[in-house]
């Protein structure tokens, strides 16, 4: 991840040929079917929570899978967008899609600022720098007049989509969230397989060579960072509308750690890993919610186990077994 | 009473003292991080948790065994340092051949485990730990009252920093350590037990964190969350100073504590974010940190 690719560093696969493309198409159709069936299998609110965090993890994974940069501060974009979205929907009275758009753009801009500074360092320094900047955003959220301090912004109206469709019904909102999730996920997939994605792969594999070929490496990294921050913001804003709440939890360092854990357990650098990881961690939190701090302990144990013995993650292991890219 | 820039001197020096005390903790903690990083190439995310455990060990020694502050100042670092050695042998030693980020992730997991366990046991709120009888009271310096314990914290932190620096720069063990940092294979070939040095280094770095924890116990509430917020600031301190130099870590720690204290006097709203702002500036001007050597 620090410019010396080894077997252990996560690398996001690129689609190589038409056969690959066909099996991705099948997987996407399968995912879409699952998304339609999900609210009838589990509580819609739970399903929405999974999708918001899955999109968040997809955004985080875009950065680590394509640049090897591990951000430990992605909560800043998730939570920052949650605050902006909540404020826009509640105080400015924007419709939910515009509120989420405002949150997403704010996060992308924040990503531009933090990214421009952070990509000046690599490896573990990058992780520390992003963590520190996220903590700065946390303190800002704690003190700024519009964020509501310890209370956060509560009772955010779900509103009417495009001013027409009421989102107070959980099932209706679920399908909106599912569309947002799928759009974000397909965008990431599209970016990964665009010329931009190819250049990012080249930089990841051999940065000096990419530089010598004339690529402005830092510009590419920054663009990727902004994209990742924006999609994390899309997830955070959607979450604020779903739960009608933006709070300090969304910007705290624990949140940054959680998204790392989701991606790690699902499989860093895989396409579907973050979704699986998000499903597992959110389920875990739901079922253990009454156990208090044991959730933290268990998350820590999963971290340790994953790092010591399970670095490819669940999807990574399945992909190796089946010898396909997932 | 005279005034400086419209600020009463008692308030100014009071905040400077607080800043210096924060700086003492930044210095000791970033020193430990730098020592560990130099040898293991791992950022010890559990450093804050180990600092917290140090404080709790002192608290438990007092409340369960009746062992007071002075013995705790030695026992807690030894206990927590030994725990660190076990961690290094069991977990970290398996990661040296991998990307350094895995060390960060593993120690982050350890930090979660420690914090969660202590929160289960003690709850979120803090336990109080009294100032030892021999260090209670204040001294009147004329312009302000100086609590003796706070003065002791600064002195103790300075002594520990200096001792660590001397150990690393001026002793035979330190020269082995520095040599092993530069070229572990060669030093190993000379018959020095490098894995043992690595293990002891981690234990020593962790012991430094625990020592800071005991120092902090009478000042801050002893609580499970006391380490995690502090360690993020210390990360920023480390980025500002760069991890190439022991002395650099010490100076940066104290200096940033002072700057933070001054910010509290003149612009309190920015006090909690000041260090991060400085980090942003340093990243712009000197990305490798003020004392950083490596690119």
UniProtKB/TrEMBL annotation, chain A:
The UniProt GO MF terms for this protein read:
branched-chain amino acid transmembrane transporter activity
| Coiled coil segments of this chain | none
- Classify the main location: membrane
Q: What is the name listed in the Swiss-Prot or TrEMBL entry for this protein?
A: Branched-chain amino acid transport system permease protein
Location within or outside the cell: Cell membrane
**Which is a Gene Ontology cellular component entry for this protein?**
plasma membrane
CDD domains the UniProt entry points to: TM_PBP1_LivM_like (cd06581)
Query: Which keywords has UniProt assigned to this entry?
Result: Cell membrane, Membrane, Transmembrane, Transmembrane helix
Bilayer topology annotation: Multi-pass membrane protein
TrEMBL record, chain B:
One GO cellular component, as annotated: plasma membrane
In which family does this protein belong, per the annotation?
Belongs to the binding-protein-dependent transport system permease family. LivHM subfamily.
Species in which this protein is naturally found: Paracoccus sulfuroxidans
CDD domains per UniProt? TM_PBP1_LivH_like
Q: What is the membrane topology noted in the UniProt record heading this document?
A: Multi-pass membrane protein
Is Cell membrane given among the entry's keywords? yes
Please provide, alphabetically and separated by semicolons, the GO molecular function terms listed in this UniProt record: transmembrane transporter activity
Predominant location: membrane
In terms of superkingdom, the source organism counts as: Bacteria
Protein name (Swiss-Prot/TrEMBL): Branched-chain amino acid transport system permease protein
Locations listed in the record: Cell membrane
Keyword list (alphabetical) reads:
Amino-acid transport, Cell membrane, Membrane, Transmembrane, Transmembrane helix, Transport
Q: What is the lineage of its organism?
A: Bacteria, Pseudomonadati, Pseudomonadota, Alphaproteobacteria, Rhodobacterales
Task: List where the protein spans the membrane.
Answer: 12-35, 42-62, 68-87, 99-117, 129-146, 151-168, 196-223, 230-259, 265-285
